[in-house]
C-alpha cells in the first residue's frame, strides 16, 4: 500500500498543467438539425487523449494542428476529421452506431455494441431522466431493462432498506456490478426474510446517484472468465459523467394517488476542466426523501385474549368461552374490549408498505492527464448515507409473551430504523508502455449498516424495559488492486486485441453486537447440570428486531488473487473470435480456472450471428459463511424466533449441516442481429445457464415442516434464544433457459418531429433440476432442508416474461413518453400452511411530458402506473390471517405515482 500511495503522490506532482503549443478547438453539431451535441467525445484516433463537449457542443483539445481526430456521440455515426484552430464537426444520426461507448464484454477499444460477439444493452440516462417517472436507480432499471428485476419488500428487516435486484432471474449475488469498469463492493446486508434473493448478498445500486451517471452498460452473458467471480448472470457497468463547463440541477416532487409515498429529490451536477491537457472533474450531490406507503387491511388475528389481560376489560369478565373451540367467541370478545376502550379494529392493522427512506450522497469523477499525454491519473468515488424506517409485525395484546402491559396496554407496532453508510474511492494511473496500454488502480469500498429498534419492548425486562434499543449492525469492506495491460495488433489478420491482467482483492465482514437489553432474555437460567430453562416464559430482546448477541459478533476476512488473459481476433472483416481464461485463488476456498469463447459472424451488412460459451465460479460470500443472528419471523405460520447459524458453528455440527462450497456454472448463448437500415436494429439472443451447488437457506430445524416440535433440537437452542435454526447449504442445481429481444426504430417525420420506438422483451425460465444429497441426520426432513417455498423463490417469484414497449415522440421543444411494461405471471408458494397462488400478468402504463422552455429550463410531469395496477390480491391462506393484502411481486404495491420535475442547465464557454 505504501508503494501505491507514493505512486499516487508522484502522479499528482507531475500533473502540473502546461500550455501546449498547438490547440485544436471547435463545435460538434447534429448534421440534421444543426443543434449542438453536448457530451460528444473528441479524441485522437489511438484514444490516448480525449475531451467531452460542453452543453454548447464546444471542445478544446491539446494536439498539433493537422493531426487526425474523431468525434463520436451515442446515436450518431463516428466521424474522423483533421484538427484545426477552429472547426465545426457535424455528425449524422444513426441509432445503430454506438461506437462512442466503451462497452463491457470486450477489452477492445474499437469494439461497439453493434459488432460485439455478446449481447450488451446501453441505457443512456443523461437525457432519459427528463421523462422517467422513477427517481431511484433500481426502479429505473426495472422499467428499462426487461432482464432486470427488482421489487420493494415490506416487513423484511434490512431488505426493506436495500432493494434486492437481479439479472435473468438469478440471485442478486450472481450479477457483478462495476463502476467505470472497476469492481463495486457489495452491501453488508444478507437477505434472509423469505423475500426474492433470500440468502444472497447484492450490490446497493441506489447508493449511486442517478444524476452522476452518464450511461449504464448491461452485459447479458456469463463473464466470470473476464471479470471474476459473481458474473454468472452478467455484468452491470455504471459509467459516470464526464461533463465539463456545465452546471445542472434537478428538482422532483411526487406522491401516490393515495396521498402517501411523498417523494422529494434534489440533485446537483457540476463539471469543470482541470489543467490544460483535457482533464476534468465532475461533482454530484443528491438528496432523496420517500415517505412510507400503507397498503394494509383489517385482519382476523385475535387482538385480545381474555386470560392474558391484567383485568377483564369488558362486561365484567362475562366471557368464559373456550376460545380454541369457538372462533366466533374470540371475535365477540375483541369487539367488546374495543368498544370499552373506544378503539376500532382498524387501529390494530399492521403497517404494510414501502419503508420511509432518506437517501443523500455525493459522487465525483476525475481525470488528470500528464503533460504530453503520456499518462493519466484518474479517480472516482463517493459517500452515501441512508436513514430508513421500516416496520415489523405488530404485537397484539393477545400475545402475552410479548407484552409489557404497563407500557403498551394495547400492544405496539415496532419499527426498525436503519443508518447505512456507504463509501468508496478508486484511484488509478493509465500510461503507455511502448505500444501497450497500462492501467494500475486501487478501489476500496465499505458498507456499514446500523439498526435501531423503536416503539418496542424486551418483555423479559417487564416494566423496566426501554422502548428504544441500539441493536448493533454489520459492515463489509472490499479493497481491490488491478493491473491491466492491453495492446492492439493491426497487422495480425484484420486486427488482434490482447489483454492481460492481475487482481488482488481483500474482503472483511464484521458483525457488531447490540446493547445488552436488545438481545438478552433475562428469564433464562442455567442450572448446575448445564441445561438452560426459561423461568418467565416471556420474549427476550427487542421485539421485531432483536439485537446481535456477543455470540453473533465477530470479524472475518479473506483474500483473493487472480490473473487473466483475454484475446479478440478479427479473423476477417466479417468473422470475430474471442477467448478469455482466468485463474483465481481464494484464501478460504482454493483455486479455480474458468474460460470463455465467443464468436460473431456477419453474413452481410444487415445480418450477423453471434454466440458464446463460458464457465463460472462464485465462492460463498463472507456473509453467507459467517452471518449469525436470531430474528423474529413467521416460523411455520406463527411469529417466533428463527436463528441463523454459520456452518462452522457448534449448532451446525450438532444438527449435521455440512460446510459450504463454491457454486460453479456453465453459460451458453446464441443469437443474431439485424440492421436493415440506419433507423432499425433488432437483436435476439437465447441463453442457457446451469448452476451447480447453488447456495440457499434451509427452513427452520427444530420443527418439522408443519410445526411439530423436535424437542431434541428445540431444547439445544434455548441458550441461543432461538426456537429454530437455519443454515446456508449447497442444496440444489438449477438451470435457466431464456431469450432476449431488443428492437429499436426511429421514424423521422420532418426536421423537428421524430418518433423513437423500443420493443424489448425477456422470457426466462428458472428450474431446480436436482436437490443435492441431504445429510443423513436430516433425511427425514427434506421439506425443511429445501422447502417448496424456497423452490418458488428460485423458479417462479420473478416474472418469466417481461415486455417493454416505449414510444418517445419529440416535436420541437416537446417530448412525450408513453411506455407499457408487461410483468408476466408469477407464482407464490405459501407452504406449509398456505397454498400455491398464481398471480396473473399485468401491464403497467407510464406517461410523461417534457417541455424545454429554453436551453436552460425543462419542465416535466407525468405518472408511473397511471391506471393504478396492483398484483392480484393474496388468497387468504397466504395473507397471514388477512394481514398482507398483496405480495410484493411484479410491479410492487405503490400504485399510481404522479411526479413533476424541473431541470436547470447552465453551460460555460470553452476557453
TrEMBL record:
Organism superkingdom: Bacteria
Membrane topology: Multi-pass membrane protein
Location relative to the cell: Cell outer membrane
CDD domains: ligand_gated_channel
Main location as per UniProt: membrane
Domain TonB-dependent receptor-like beta-barrel per the UniProt entry, residue ranges: 378-866
Keywords: Cell outer membrane, Membrane, Receptor, Signal, TonB box, Transmembrane, Transmembrane beta strand, Transport
The keyword Cytoplasm appears for this protein: no
Xref: Pfam families: CarbopepD_reg_2, Plug, TonB_dep_Rec_b-barrel
TonB-dependent receptor plug domain span: 114-235
Signal peptide limits: 1-20
InterPro entries referenced in this protein's UniProt entry, alphabetically: Beta-barrel_TonB, Beta-barrel_TonB_sf, CarboxyPept-like_regulatory, Plug_dom, Plug_dom_sf, TonB-dep_rcpt-like
Family: Belongs to the TonB-dependent receptor family.
Record protein name field: TonB-dependent receptor
Species the sequence originates in: Danxiaibacter flavus
Species lineage: Bacteria, Pseudomonadati, Bacteroidota, Chitinophagia, Chitinophagales
Amino acid at each position: 500500500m505504501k508503494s501505491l500511495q507514493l505512486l499516487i503522490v508522484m502522479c499528482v506532482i507531475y500533473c502540473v498543467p502546461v500550455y501546449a503549443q498547438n490547440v485544436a478547438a471547435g463545435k460538434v453539431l447534429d448534421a440534421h438539425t444543426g443543434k449542438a451535441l453536448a457530451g460528444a467525445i473528441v479524441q485522437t484516433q489511438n484514444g490516448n487523449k480525449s475531451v467531452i463537449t460542453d452543453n454548447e457542443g464546444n471542445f478544446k483539445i491539446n494536439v498539433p494542428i493537422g493531426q487526425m481526430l474523431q468525434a463520436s456521440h451515442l446515436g450518431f455515426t463516428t466521424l474522423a476529421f483533421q484538427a484545426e484552430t477552429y472547426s465545426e464537426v457535424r455528425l449524422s444520426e444513426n441509432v445503430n452506431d454506438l461506437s462512442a461507448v466503451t462497452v463491457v464484454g470486450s477489452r477492445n477499444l474499437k469494439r461497439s455494441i453493434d459488432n460485439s460477439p455478446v449481447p450488451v444493452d446501453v441505457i443512456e440516462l443523461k437525457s432519459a431522466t427528463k421523462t422517467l417517472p422513477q427517481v431511484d436507480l433500481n426502479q429505473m432499471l426495472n422499467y428499462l431493462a426487461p432482464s432486470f428485476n427488482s421489487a420493494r419488500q415490506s416487513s423484511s428487516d434490512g431488505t426493506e432498506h436495500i432493494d434486492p435486484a437481479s439479472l435473468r432471474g438469478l440471485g442478486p449475488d450472481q450479477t457483478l456490478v462495476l463502476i467505470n469498469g472497476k469492481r463495486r463492493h457489495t452491501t453488508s446486508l444478507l437477505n434472509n426474510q423469505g423475500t426474492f434473493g433470500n440468502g444472497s448478498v447484492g450490490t446497493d445500486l441506489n447508493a449511486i446517484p442517478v444524476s452522476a451517471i452518464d450511461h449504464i452498460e448491461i452485459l447479458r452473458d456469463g463473464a466470470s472468465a473476464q471479470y471474476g467471480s459473481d458474473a454468472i448472470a452478467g455484468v452491470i457497468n455504471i459509467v459516470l459523467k464526464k461533463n465539463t463547463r456545465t452546471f445542472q440541477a434537478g428538482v422532483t416532487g411526487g406522491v401516490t394517488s393515495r396521498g402517501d409515498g411523498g417523494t422529494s429529490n434534489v440533485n446537483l451536477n457540476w463539471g469543470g476542466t482541470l489543467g490544460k491537457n483535457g482533464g476534468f472533474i465532475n461533482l454530484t450531490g443528491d438528496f432523496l426523501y420517500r415517505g412510507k406507503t400503507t397498503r394494509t387491511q383489517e385482519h382476523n388475528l385475535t387482538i385480545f385474549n381474555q386470560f392474558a389481560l391484567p383485568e377483564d376489560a369488558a362486561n365484567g369478565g362475562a366471557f368464559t368461552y373456550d376460545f380454541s373451540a369457538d372462533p366466533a367467541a374470540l371475535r365477540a370478545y375483541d369487539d367488546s374490549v374495543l368498544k370499552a376502550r373506544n378503539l376500532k379494529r382498524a387501529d390494530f392493522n399492521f403497517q404494510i408498505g414501502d419503508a420511509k427512506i432518506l437517501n443523500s450522497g455525493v459522487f465525483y469523477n476525475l481525470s488528470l492527464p500528464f503533460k504530453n499525454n503520456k499518462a493519466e491519473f484518474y479517480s472516482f468515488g463517493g459517500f452515501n448515507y441512508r436513514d430508513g424506517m421500516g416496520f415489523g409485525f405488530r404485537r397484539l395484546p393477545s400475545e402475552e409473551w410479548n407484552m409489557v402491559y404497563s407500557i403498551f396496554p394495547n400492544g405496539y407496532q415496532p419499527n426498525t430504523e436503519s443508518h447505512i453508510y456507504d463509501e468508496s474511492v478508486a484511484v488509478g494511473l493509465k500510461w503507455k508502455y511502448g505500444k501497450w496500454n497500462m492501467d494500475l488502480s486501487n478501489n476500496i469500498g465499505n458498507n456499514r449498516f446500523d439498526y435501531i429498534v423503536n416503539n418496542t419492548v424486551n418483555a423479559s425486562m417487564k416494566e423496566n424495559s426501554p422502548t428504544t434499543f441500539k441493536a448493533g449492525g454489520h459492515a463489509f469492506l472490499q479493497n481491490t488492486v488491478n493491473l491491466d495491460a492491453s495492446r492492439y495488433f493491426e497487422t495480425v489478420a484484420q486486427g488482434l486485441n490482447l489483454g492481460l491482467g492481475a487482481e488482488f482483492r481483500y474482503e472483511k465482514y464484521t458483525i457488531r453486537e447490540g446493547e445488552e437489553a436488545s438481545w438478552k432474555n433475562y428469564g433464562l437460567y442455567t442450572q448446575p447440570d448445564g441445561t438452560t430453562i426459561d423461568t418467565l416464559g416471556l420474549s427476550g430482546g427487542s421485539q421485531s428486531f432483536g439485537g446481535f448477541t456477543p455470540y453473533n459478533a465477530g470479524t472475518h476476512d479473506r483474500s483473493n488473487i487472480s490473473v487473466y488473459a483475454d484475446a479478440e481476433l478479427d479473423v476477417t472483416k466479417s468473422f470475430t473470435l474471442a477467448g478469455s481464461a482466468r485463474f483465481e485463488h481464494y484464501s478460504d476456498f482454493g483455486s479455480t480456472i474458468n474460460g470463455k469463447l465467443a464468436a460473431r459472424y456477419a453474413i452481410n451488412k444487415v445480418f450477423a450471428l453471434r454466440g458464446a460459451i463460458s464457465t463460472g465460479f462464485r465462492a460463498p460470500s463472507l456473509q453467507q459463511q459467517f452471518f449469525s443472528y436470531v430474528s423474529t419471523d413467521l416460523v411455520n405460520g406463527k411469529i417466533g424466533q428463527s436463528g441463523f447459524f454459520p456452518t462452522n458453528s457448534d449448532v451446525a455440527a450438532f444438527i449435521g449441516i455440512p460446510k459450504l462450497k463454491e457454486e460453479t456454472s456453465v453459460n451458453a448463448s446464441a443469437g443474431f442481429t439485424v440492421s436493415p437500415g440506419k433507423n432499425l436494429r433488432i437483436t435476439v439472443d437465447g441463453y442457457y445457464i446451469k448452476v451447480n451447488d447453488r447456495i440457499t437457506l434451509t427452513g427452520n430445524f427444530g420443527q418439522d415442516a408443519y410445526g411439530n416440535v423436535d424437542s431434541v433440537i428445540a431444547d439445544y437452542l434455548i441458550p441461543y434464544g432461538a426456537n429454530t435454526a437455519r443454515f446456508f447449504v449447497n442444496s440444489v442445481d438449477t438451470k435457466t433457459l431464456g431469450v432476449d429481444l431488443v428492437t429499436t426504430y426511429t421514424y423521422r417525420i420532418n426536421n423537428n418531429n421524430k418518433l423513437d420506438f423500443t420493443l424489448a422483451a425477456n422470457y426466462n425460465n428458472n428450474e431446480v433440476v436436482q436437490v443435492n444429497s441431504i445429510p443423513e441426520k436430516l433425511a427425514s426432513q427434506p421439506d425443511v432442508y429445501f422447502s417448496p417455498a424456497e423452490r418458488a423463490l428460485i423458479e417462479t417469484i420473478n416474472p418469466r416474461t417481461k415486455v417493454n414497449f416505449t414510444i418517445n415522440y419529440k416535436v420541437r421543444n416537446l417530448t412525450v413518453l408513453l411506455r407499457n411494461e408487461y410483468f408476466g405471471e408469477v407464482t407464490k408458494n405459501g407452504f406449509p400452511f398456505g397454498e400455491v397462488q398464481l398471480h396473473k400478468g399485468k401491464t403497467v402504463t407510464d406517461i410523461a411530458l417534457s417541455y424545454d422552455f429554453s436551453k436552460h429550463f425543462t419542465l416535466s410531469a407525468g405518472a408511473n402506473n397511471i391506471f393504478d395496477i396492483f398484483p392480484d390480491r393474496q388468497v387468504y391462506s397466504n395473507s397471514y390471517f388477512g394481514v398482507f393484502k398483496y405480495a410484493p411481486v411484479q410491479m410492487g404495491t405503490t400504485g399510481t405515482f404522479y411526479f413533476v420535475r424541473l431541470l436547470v442547465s447552465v453551460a460555460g464557454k470553452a476557453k
